[in-house]
Specification:
The protein is mainly α. The chain is 62% helix and 3% strand. Strands 1-4 form a two-stranded antiparallel sheet.
Length: 244
């Protein structure tokens, strides 16, 4: 644990160090995650009957997605600078003791990630925001693994703020905070893979979140939540059955 603390202190010793750390970290998450999930998807299609949900791939779509994902990663790295300032001034802290707290802190941060994503996503689907910001992500009518970070720069900024409130309000364990972007990229890769196995569950079942997000990319006017369907059900923003 002392090695982890030392690396953390080095990473956040200056704003520049924090920005470089975030850039390298998110580059690794993006390209490493795509590679690993592509391999997993190969076996899922081969051995478990996974199939594509929709077929609307645009010409040169993946190049567009990679370019905008790299821009998003740059924005995430810039956001590390004010985060480093908050840490240096004592406004944001992390803990390195009592690892048992991960049992409740990781689920809490998972729920916060779902709430934050829904609120930002619903805002981005307002007319002005959709026309000027969120349209970049929806250029991918058929989502792909490369589209997970394919955002307008301001959308990337809004989504990147997910980490600030928890760290300012409470001293979470370092590994709980680290799990937040890891959980996010895993769910994003699954949700944007556009492949699922055969299922007799209704589209609103929790296990059908990949299908729901593919339908969101197809129709764009509903299914604003990510893995959990409950906020869409609560605020009546789920897509109707005839659009599934």
């Amino acid at each position: 644990m002392n090695r982890v603390v030392s690396l953390y202190e080095l990473a956040f010793s200056t704003g520049l160090n924090a920005a470089i750390t975030f850039f390298v970290f998110f580059i690794f998450l993006y390209f490493g995650g795509i590679l690993l999930y592509s391999l997993a998807l190969y076996f899922l299609k081969k051995d478990f009957g996974y199939h594509a949900i929709q077929h609307n791939l645009r010409k040169r779509q993946m190049g567009f997605e990679i370019r905008h994902s790299l821009l998003s990663i740059f924005i995430f790295s810039i956001q590390a600078i004010p985060l480093q300032y908050l840490i240096a001034q004592g406004y944001a802290k992390v803990s390195f003791t009592n690892a048992w707290v991960l049992l409740w802190q990781i689920p809490v941060l998972f729920l916060w990630n779902e709430i934050h994503f829904y609120l930002v996503h619903a805002l981005l689907h307002r007319k002005w925001w959709m026309k000027h910001v969120h349209f970049v992500h929806h250029r991918s009518k058929e989502p792909t693994l490369f589209s997970v970070y394919s955002f307008h720069w301001f959308e990337a900024f809004l989504l990147g703020t997910v980490i600030f409130l928890p760290m300012v309000l409470y001293t979470f364990h370092f590994f709980a905070i680290l799990c937040l972007p890891v959980m996010s990229i895993i769910l994003n890769l699954m949700g944007h893979s556009n492949h699922e196995g055969h299922s007799d569950k209704a589209p609103q079942h929790i296990s059908r979140f990949i299908f729901r997000h593919s339908m969101h990319h197809k129709w764009s006017n509903g299914n604003f939540g990510f893995m959990l369907p409950y906020l869409d059900q609560l605020f009546n923003t789920k897509l109707p059955k005839n659009k599934n």
